[in-house]
Amino acid sequence: xxxxxxxxxxxxxxxxxxxxxxxxxxxxxxxxxxxxxxxxxxxxxxxxxxxxxxxxxxxxxxxxxxxxxxxxxxxxxxxxxxxxxxxxxxxxxxxxxxxxxxxxxxxxxxxxxxxxxxxxxxxxxxxxxxxxxxxxxxxxxxxxxxxxxxxxxxxxxxxxxxxxxxxxxxxxxxxxxxxxxxxxxxxxxxxxxxxxxxxxxxxxxxxxxxxxxxxxxxxxxxxxxxxxxxxxxxxxxxxxxxxxxxxxxxxxxxxxxxxxxxxxxxxxxxxxx
Length: 273
Ligand SMILES: C[S@@+](CC[C@H](N)C(=O)[O-])C[C@H]1O[C@@H](n2cnc3c(N)ncnc32)[C@H](O)[C@@H]1O
Known about the structure:
30% of the residues lie in helices and 35% in strands. By secondary structure, the chain is an alpha/beta fold. Strand 7 (177-186) and strand 8 form a beta hairpin.
């Protein structure tokens, strides 16, 4: 009886939901949306109301956007039906009928999608780094520019520093599990980076390669140059601040082109059409 129970009992990794773990460990919609709202107001003098979330995955950020103001509208774009369906079941299902009426989820490639002109288009968690060819990046950013209203803004995130250009593993404790970010292979000629997200659980079970990405590590200046080629009038870099005494990164981003030799830093690029 005892051994039968043992064989039937599933490990935490076997019962885990990788999208729920991703949302809990990687995404911080509230912080991102606050940054978007504050920066948009500073740069345009008004509040943004329409937002398109490219590479939206579970569309958690689009859903949260709808809750922040009764006139906010959102479009989420992702070409993967499985992740969109998960988002519909777990995030969209929690919206009120009014919020739901202001949301559109589109299952399509961001390179071909056609949407009305938006105040904000955002592509976070480095997903636009899937595009490895300069001409594809220009094509994507040009289409985005055409989908922004005249005083609209594009928000991208970036990371930099010597640690982007090497293999490494980074572990972080989250409520009830460990999140592991692995940069598994780096090509020093092409800047191609293969990375994985793994989750480890208190019962010692592991969900290996829950997510895998192959990106090109683009330099911040390179992306600014491409934005210029794609017709944007300006782009501003907001770099993460560091504590002056401890050198620990802070949750504060400042517009600056100054970067000490940080091993790893996060930032945003905000571009105007
Ligand atoms: C790293 S997740 C990003 C999720 C979320 N935006 C975030 O901030 O964490 C990347 C998502 O991009 C989607 N994706 C990758 N290439 C795409 C493309 N060309 N068009 C649309 N979606 C794409 C994948 O299906 C995946 O759901």
